[in-house]
Amino acid sequence: MKKNFYHRFTKLLFLQVVFFSSFNAYAQSAGVPLSAAKNASVNKEALPVVIYREYGESKNAVTAYINGHVTGVLLPGAYTQVGVCQGTFNLSIQEQKTETKKVETQKFATKQSETTYIKVSGDGIAFREVLPTEALQDLKSIKVTSNVINRFSAICKSSERIVNLGADALFASNGSDISPTGVAQLNSLIADLKTQMNEVSGLKIIGHTDSLGDERYNEALSLARASSVARYLGKQGLSLPMETEGRGEREPVSVGCDQFKAERSNMIACLQPDRRVVIELLDKQQ
Q1: What is the pLDDT of residue 79?
Q2: With contact defined as beta carbons under 8 Å apart, do 116 and 110 qualify?
Q3: What pLDDT, in 10s, does the model give residues 116-144?
Q4: For residue range 242-252, what is the model confidence (pLDDT) as tens digits?
Q5: Top CATH class, 161-283
Q6: Closest CA to 49 of 152, 163, 161, 147
Q7: Hey, where are the domains in the chain?
Q8: What is the pLDDT of residue 152?
Q9: What is the 3-state secondary structure (H, E, C) of the chain?
């Protein structure tokens, strides 16, 4: 093991106790099974963040992104939970079923030894951080999780690094040209990557689509989107080897969308997380 094993072990033990104690209190108050809380996608350096949406008149879902990663799709009265590295993080909430797909982004900071709770409006995309006392009271009536398999795992001190970008923010529908919102997301990613050039040997960029439409078309679209991202990164001066791949509709992350088969607009919204571009950062040590 590493020379700082004892320090790392005691720190890990402390974080685990804090994380599970905090989530146990949350789970018991919200009616969430403790097993679900303990299986949250968090590594040993990450701190827990709970994002929940209060009840409201709207029936439209919103998508939650942390640092550009899809972490949940929330209807009113639903929540998602995720681990975030210590420090600051950007949370974006985006409308799903509107033409404009408005998005709001704010910066928050994790707190050592504490869970961060963020409350999203039930009637729009406004959101704010709330105290644990308010959150735990609200969560007593919120028992529905996001209908997305949360594959975001904070990589704080690990050789496994993956960036998951929502395609709806990067591209227009059925297109592969990068949108202004997508440009902003990629510029932020480029800035982060340029600080890690000594650690990264290359990028593998993988496009994904939802299951709507022709399978061969989706394969081609996913590859075109991955290639578009690679070209943009290269044009902005990111001098790393890049491999692109399109996997079409073969690796969905959404769940429970079959219930919307007769409602196309709801089906499109539910499948939103499947439309994504995944960037794998290849470690120089591998």
Answers
A1: 92
A2: yes
A3: 999 999 888 899 999 999 999 999 888 77
A4: 999 999 999 88
A5: alpha beta
A6: 152
A7: 5-145, 161-283
A8: 58
A9: CCCCHHHHHHHHHHHHHHHHHHHHHHHHHHCCCHHHHHCCCCCCCEEEEEEEECCCCCCCCEEEEECCEEEEEECCCEEEEEEEECCEEEEEEEECCCCCCCEEEEEEECCCCCCEEEEECCCCCCEEEECHHHHHHHHCCCCEECCECCCCCCCCCCCCEEEEEEHHHHECCCCCCECHHHHHHHHHHHHHHHCCCCCEEEEEEEEECCCCCCHHHHHHHHHHHHHHHHHHHHHCCCCCCEEEEECCCCCCCECCHHHHCCCHHHHHHHCHHHCEEEEEEEECCC
Considering only CA atoms, which of 226, 153, 154, 237 is closest in space to residue 190? Answer: 237
Distance CA 165, CA 277 (A): 5
Range in 152-156, 163-167, 194-198 the model is least confident about: 152-156
Does residue 172 contact residue 76 with C-beta atoms inside 8 Å?
A: no
